[in-house]
UniProtKB/TrEMBL annotation, chains A, B, C:
Pathway annotation: Carbohydrate metabolism; pentose and glucuronate interconversion
Protein name according to UniProt: Uronate isomerase
Gene3D superfamilies in UniProt: Metal-dependent hydrolases, uronate isomerase, domain 2, chain A
Signal peptide: none
Catalytic activity: D-glucuronate = D-fructuronate
Length: 477, 477, 477
């Protein structure tokens, strides 16, 4: 179709120094620090890739279902520019191939929307390094890109297990419902052809929120899964402990919690049973449901101190902010919006109880950056049990990462941070996300070397720790 | 008076690279980006210049009344150093020429007070580029400066219309009371000798605040202006709709709102009428007045969705913080102090109702920087209707602008921001303010190019968009 | 013990350009600015060195008691890595020499914990410049370091008075209880061999907190010290005024206040007496105790306006966050954790009353960085009485200092800031702390020169002001 008069379409050029500081001497230091960690194995202690993909080594679907529809980082920005989510496949049960191609064209047409966002960085790196295509997305290139990607992912070398090796993943955590039988994890464990490490993560949020519809049924199901009667709070606790043990037997190292706030406040046994009974009967007021949830979360902390599963906390989000979209399209569509967070008072009771407990470990993530220097770094700089989680979600981006290190390090150093967490459903983007984090940390450390706060040797050790010992310690891996 | 032994007084040297990054390669990129947008026309979609100045092409007054007395950015800092506001002409009905000269001397004497603030940048640029004087203000130079400026502004070439052309203004928005007949705007429209564009902005705050003295009288006046009975809430709504239509006929593109908080919460009709009646009768409690205001603001949003006037929101300010000064000197004297802002919950009802409405557009400004990354960028990154306003007021300064871009861009990109808003009464400073914004954006974009997040071509397109398509889209110009 | 095959242990190399910007031209400017202020005398208007050290010129104790045990900046980070505080001597009445040496070894073993924190910078400078040892702390060097330091501090040249001269201290403020007779200050004043200036600071927190155990007894003691009956609020006020006068006679220039929040709210006389009486009788509810405290703090502001003692405020901290540690080890062990702060509304009544009062001066410190640009800089940019305190405690670190200047300067300039405050118990670290501040300010100013916001002359003047006229003005020294 091309003629001699058509200019060549622009190509993505991944610069080897991307995200490194512009000042030449500092860049030289950063380049050296980054080079030393670039190829170290990936430790991914928190994410959302389904274990089944690896257990069954399922082929990836069409380019839209692979790269667009499930990635709310991407669909939200297109929606913000007026693209209906359904046109991107969100909430569409079985999109036709024409629909998928049309959705891919929308992404390409709106490509400039992603300028300055990490989505551009991740997707460029996925296209070039994982998929081997380097056309800049646009109306002109959409179909060529679509076809090239479709062809590439049809190849056996692009199945999940092959990519697991190619990506250099050392350990990958999934996120799982307490009732999950973890059959895929068991299958992987028992598969002589599999030599990777995929560990489940216990995610019990829905069983703590008595204010949400269907809670009582879910708690019944929990009891069934655990083989105990969850008719009482004592039964709920027993069921949770059993399911946590089931997860631990299947390799779990952490339990993840994401509620509106970070408050954990113990209930005395009688009051707990009373609230639990009212909630079971559907009579709990919103305030009672909240009190119960905070009491149950305290119980989860207590269990973490007992069984050693690292407790991770992701609070401070107003979920499903746009009710009409939730009703039409469901949850996890990019309409969760952060709210201000508070930790100093919220965590006081749990830190009173377990803050110096040798088996308790609490990793706190936030999107409220104001808490990094004000609350989380001071807390992590005193309590041996508390770690400041890596910049999460909207903050998983180069400038935000720099602000995170600048806000946390002077008060808590490096050792009380969590190491990078990709938190992603987008399997293909895992290397790009970890790479961006390694570059950002190299950039930050280079700055400390350049103004003589660290020696180069100290920075080298720290850069290495940040991708090796530090995430392994924080997540007990 | 000078002798051979007096050293020459220091001169202001406006460096062509001011506000551009120091690192040479990054500066080179920034210089190129800035050069490409430096001379593009000024779009000023929100400000406080009176339309009458242009309608009547009124000559400017003496240097103090021109540059000092009405500019609370400047008087507040002198007041903070102990200069009584009255000595600067604030609240003085008819200052003598001796008083004006004395006030100008105070500015010059305290010139070092402005170091590090944007007032210094703006005023230096006004002196050199607009007024053609370059003496550094000081005790020694005060009188010479005063005389030189007085002479300059007496020239016909310094009338508002001549400056409008010289400044390259494409469109200038004023801010107007709903009862204003907009005669000056009409006069400009009908003036065959005028080829500029001056549009009114609907600013109804005072008609929503039933807790402020005189509210009932103002609402009566509103009814009179609209030709309807505002004795009921339905009448108030009708009157507002008519006045908005009047503004739209005169070219208005937006309605501006500045209350203590951003909450908009619909009232059902009966409850609304009940509260309105109590407020009319002077019986509303402060809590009722607040509930009513939040309901009325929701109504304004609903009207914006109907008539397409862009809704702009400037919440989060404690007005007239120092009551004794307000009593002596009135409002708008630099004693408005920001408070913490909240948007995620405050805007939920209005975004539920109109967040994806094709005619609704909401531009949110804040002085609480914490909300940029935590709330506003996430909201703008999902809702097609919502735009993040440029850094406003105290944040209209180089470092704050950089923090704004760094906080917003990674989550919401560039396209969901508002473009620059000068928000000023200081007509002469309009070019300097827009220039500072263009420099700051060039500096930010250059940084993204220097660390290979954007190509130079992408940065050029974005720099141009930021002063052309983006403000025009956000404000429907 | 060393043999030819052992590599030489690494040495601390203090780089002359540490903390200065990496970009060469900017560094050149910063180097010049720093050089011009490096050796200016130290003004330390707020700190915690005991006056007795200087009055009696007491020899320093062993290295652990000198450098580790009393310094909670340091012990908290070791505790956060699992070192029991008692192993560092905290709460240990009379540690053996073996215990002290073991504690010192723990510091050395965990030396990498301090990477990226100011503790590393301070301690490296103390070791090299004050103590003349330059071994990098580690397991291998711990004993050599311990012995070298012990030997050094046994020397007469390391007594407090000799160091006062060597450090170039011009004035040093202590922090003292209102009941303190200030005998050590008097002794210094009357000592013909002493030519320094050590001033007390009035710190009455414990007498305002009726909610804390022992309050009534403390108030009795206050009455005794003042020679008045504190059985009534009027008596309490009288006693405070007398003790403040006693402090002023002994050279005090400020009164320091640190409560949970910054609220000051006047009580009418009858209500005040009623609450005071209830509190004296032990019947005040927590809410009443809080109301009383806020009323008493307002009284302290009123006294400051009367007697001219500068009021300094350090609010926003949750003290003794970990109750079990407090019970075992006492207070001031590094377990105080910041909370969000609010100033705009909290300070409104006191600024209404005294905001433009010529004798009232209020310096506000915070660890909640969000208030710098949102509240404190706007307040200081209007009220002549209000100054923004230097970055305090966790924020006394290079990156935080840069954020502070960037957040405050554009709105309030330099003249309404307090100058550096070391706030330290660690006498040996005073020069290192002031040096870091001077370097950070030089770095910030150099950036303004490099992008042409300030001329080099303006920056020189400002750099000098920041360590001379500005702290002297803020603290009336």
């Amino acid at each position: 179709m091309t003629t001699t008069s058509t200019p060549a379409p622009p190509r993505i050029a991944l610069h080897r120094d991307r995200l490194l500081p512009a000042e030449p001497a500092t860049r030289g230091i950063a380049r050296e620090l980054y080079a030393a960690v670039r190829d170290l194995p990936i430790v991914s202690p928190h994410g959302h890739v389904p274990a089944q993909w690896l257990a069954d080594d399922v082929p990836f679907p069409d380019p839209t279902a692979l790269l667009i529809t499930p990635d709310h980082y991407l669909t939200r920005l297109l929606h913000a520019r007026g693209v209906p989510l359904a046109d991107l496949g969100v909430g569409v049960a079985d999109p036709t191939s024409a629909q998928s191609r049309a959705a891919f064209r929308l992404l390409c047409r709106h490509w400039p929307v992603f300028r300055g966002t990490p989505v551009k960085l991740w997707l460029e790196q996925v296209l070039v390094e994982v998929l081997g295509v380097d056309l800049v997305p646009s109306d002109d290139t959409a179909d060529d890109l679509y076809d090239a990607i479709a062809e590439r992912v049809a190849d056996r070398g692009f199945r999940p297990r092959a990519l697991y090796d190619r990506f250099g993943i050392d350990v990958l955590a999934t996120t799982d419902d307490p009732c999950d039988d973890l059959a895929h994890h068991a299958a992987l464990r028992d598969d002589p052809g599999w030599h990777g490490r995929v560990v489940p993560t216990f995610r019990p949020d829905r069983y703590l929120e008595a204010g949400l519809p269907g809670w009582a049924d879910r708690v019944d199901a929990l009891g069934e899964a655990a083989g105990v009667d969850t008719g009482s709070l004592a039964g709920w606790v027993d069921a949770m402990e059993r399911r946590r043990a089931h997860f631990a037997e299947h390799g779990a190292v952490s339990a993840d919690h994401g509620h509106r706030d970070a408050v954990m406040a113990p209930l005395d046994a009688a009051e707990g049973e009373r609230l639990y009974a009212r909630a079971r009967a559907g009579h709990a007021t919103p305030a009672e449901a909240e009190t119960l949830r905070r009491g149950l979360l305290f119980e989860m902390a207590r269990m973490s101190a007992d069984d050693g599963l690292v407790m991770t906390l992701h609070p401070g989000v107003s979920r499903d902010h746009h009710a009409p979209s939730r009703e039409r399209l469901g949850t996890d569509i990019g309409a969760d919006i952060p709210v201000a967070a508070e930790f100093t008072e919220a965590l006081r009771p749990v830190l009173h109880a377990f803050g110096t407990h040798p088996r308790f470990r609490l990793v706190v993530f936030t999107i409220d950056e104001t808490t990094f220097s004000r609350e989380l770094a001071p807390l992590a700089g005193f309590y041996p049990s508390l770690y400041v989680g890596a910049p999460w979600w909207f903050l998983d981006a180069p400038d935000a990462m720099d602000r995170y290190r600048a806000a946390v390090t002077e008060t808590a150093g490096f050792a009380k941070t969590s190491g990078f967490v990709d938190d992603t459903r987008a399997y293909l983007s895992i290397p790009a996300r970890h790479d961006a984090s390694r570059r950002a940390d190299a950039a930050y450390l280079a700055r400390l070397v350049a103004d003589h706060r660290l020696t180069l040797d100290e920075a080298h050790e720290t850069a290495r720790d940040l991708v090796t010992t530090i995430p392994r310690e924080a997540f007990r891996l």
